[in-house]
Amino acid sequence: MSDCIFCKIVSGDIPGDIVYQNDDVLAFRDLNPQAPTHILVIPKRHIATINELQDADAELVGKMYLAAKEIARNEGIDEAGYRTIMNCNAGAGQTVFHIHLHVLGGRQMSWPPG
Ligand code: DGP
Fold this sequence. Notes:
- A 5-stranded antiparallel sheet has the order 1-2-3-5-4, covered by helices on one side.
- It has a single domain, classed as HIT-like (HIT family, subunit A).
- The chain is built from 2 helices and 5 strands, in the order αβββαββ.
- It is globular and about 35 Å long.
- Helices cover about 20% and strands about 20% of the residues.
- The chain binds 2'-deoxyguanosine-5'-monophosphate.
- 2'-deoxyguanosine-5'-monophosphate (DGP) binds near residues 30, 31, 95 and 96.
- 2'-deoxyguanosine-5'-monophosphate binds near residues 5, 28, 29, 30 and 96.
């Protein structure tokens, strides 16, 4: 998608502080971090929201979570704990319409989220 910020990070057209990638998934630090560790895990292929996911994307979504696990270990937040969130549509706070799994850690998390 030519007008998608995250597709531009995948293509290298805009810079990203990349911490992890494989053939299907890319992860980079959030520009506006909400915790000492705040990383976004995205599929390299453009998918706008959770609502657009197809059955065939099940493995891809699984790979996003496996990436999150790997990243949490690399960041040293796996044992203390971390949060993964994927917002869907504006009412949930989604502002970039290319699905992304937030990985947040390095501080105590509260519940419920706002
Ligand atoms: P959400 O609100 O769930 O759609 O989260 C979008 C996140 O993306 C938000 O935390 C800020 C981050 N973000 C937006 N634009 C950029 C960018 O150009 N680079 C990076 N690294 N993060 C971005």
